[in-house]
Amino acid sequence: PFPWYRKQLEKGAVLADDSYGGWHIFGYTEAQTALRNHTHFSSERFRNSGNMTNPRPSILNLDPPRHTQLRSLVNTAFTPKAIRHWSTRIQEIVDELLNSISINNETGETIDLVSTLAYPLPVIVIAEMMGIPAKDREKFKRWSDVLVEGPSSLTPEIIMDLMQRKQVAREEMRHYFYDVLTKSQHPEHSLIAILLEANLEREKLTAEELISFCILLLAAGNETTTNLITNFWRCMLQYPQALEDLQHDHSLVPSAIEETLRYYSPVQATSRIVTEDIEFYGVEMKSGDHVTIWLAAANRDSSIFTNPDTFDIYRSPNHHLAFGHGIHFCLGAPLARLEAEIAIHTMLQRFSSFQAVPAEWEPIISGFVFGLYSYPMKI
Ligand code: HEM
């Protein structure tokens, strides 16, 4: 997508969509302004869609005041401080996953980074945080994968099939969480216990709203974090000097993660609906217009980032928009950063050499997700 972003950025920061109607935002300042202005740019994408597939919107698809009320229920569980409590457990999970590899010290070993580490890690972590028993993890992963899957092509049959599979997954999850939520015992400090407790004290959510929340927590953080870890190693093997520097100095890991988020953003775009006619950086947007905000293009805007197409682990400042901006800024950002940090540190400590393996990569085909289904590398 990157040459296309470059071409669009050269044409303009805000462009009309000639095929489908609506607008595309590519520029950094313009994207930030739209994300900050939740009054004119609504997240309630499902408000008028008759809504069979999304009967109770989650916070991702809500505007204030409901958004503020619901987000505050779990905010405290996701602060960087609260998330740091999970460090030891995340380290254990990473160790367990990497222990499954046996390496011949002479010849090395080719692993698939995705299935060995990047894919199982986030789902195990979030399932544990929610207090879900280990035996149900596989089921969880399957559901969350379907929920974020994009159509492999834009034919009506494929889209219908995907919609139906999403509907089935959502129904199965609803039943699952309904059972979980109505149980009287929940592991102490689990997200579900926190949600229920805060709810009793304050918000009085319906069971449906609680269930949507659980589904969002599960779906929003899995594929995205998997792709962050995969995209990180893809950058490292593409730019050997960066890897060499990192191997000499592990304290560069956090800034290398930030640069990966900017350079290969796991979520390439998000969208909003215009709530009333507005002039926006010289164009006339109409109420009801659909706006696609290309975070990944904004992250390569040369008016903000020097040499935007260069991968630079020393880049500072690096105020990328990979986690969004404004009131919907990613709730799980501290968790995603911590998981990636521990996973990458551990690999750098355990293995002395990392090499690319020539392979046909299968990109994840979905408008807004940037990642790979598998990533073989030699360690
Ligand atoms: C929102 C990206 C990991 C939970 C968002 C948004 C982005 C994003 C761009 C804003 C969408 C918008 O404004 O429309 C990412 C990336 C991740 C990641 C790139 C990993 C590298 C996670 C994790 C969790 C999570 C691990 C939770 C366990 C959420 C939630 C929201 C959100 C609940 C909605 C927040 C709101 O609407 O107020 N994420 N995310 N994300 N993310 Fe993440």
Automatic annotation (TrEMBL):
Region of interest (Disordered), residue spans: 44-64
The keyword Protein transport appears for this protein: no
GO molecular function: heme binding; iron ion binding; monooxygenase activity; oxidoreductase activity, acting on paired donors, with incorporation or reduction of molecular oxygen
Keyword entries, A-Z: Heme, Iron, Metal-binding, Monooxygenase, Oxidoreductase
InterPro entries named among the record's database cross-references: Cyt_P450, Cyt_P450_B, Cyt_P450_CS, Cyt_P450_sf
Transmembrane segments: none
Superkingdom field: Bacteria
Family, similarity comment: Belongs to the cytochrome P450 family.
Stored PANTHER family: CYTOCHROME P450 YJIB-RELATED, P450, PUTATIVE (EUROFUNG)-RELATED
Protein name: Cytochrome P450
Natural source organism: Alicyclobacillus tolerans
